[in-house]
Amino acid sequence: MTTITLIQGDITRQRADAIVNAANSSLLGGGGVDGAIHRRGGPAILRECRALRASRYGKGLPTGRAVATTAGELDARWVIHTVGPVYSDAEDRSDLLASCYRESLRVADGLGARTVAFPAISTGVFRWPMADAARIAVHTVRETETAVEEVSFVLFDERAYEAFAAQVG
Prior knowledge:
By secondary structure, the protein is of the alpha/beta class. The protein is 38% helix and 20% strand.
């Protein structure tokens, strides 16, 4: 069974086998978690992302999918990039958000990662309501069969931490 821990802090400062990046589909960096991971991880991450774009993901990484690169200068072996959905009142996209967590764990299993650090995917500029995002994230990790031994949710602020703590129990 996977152990779930909560950390309030900066995901780029975490030590884990794999750090999950809430990436944009271009895989070329951006704002929020994505930009922070690319800045702190250095140019090796961007080089591998460009190679992925040139080979398998010419049109970008689809929402809900995940792919790994080196972690560059981060205190991890890999970065697992996943593209979360933009929140919509008109369309239920919760299956795509759950897929981000499932697919990231699948990629982690393929790499042999035993510890994985996740951000609160889609809760920043993609505007997913924090309480609902926490519910989906925690439920999906608990229900996904994986060899990952520890999942850490690294939450940027107290509001996010409290929303995840309410789900972890």
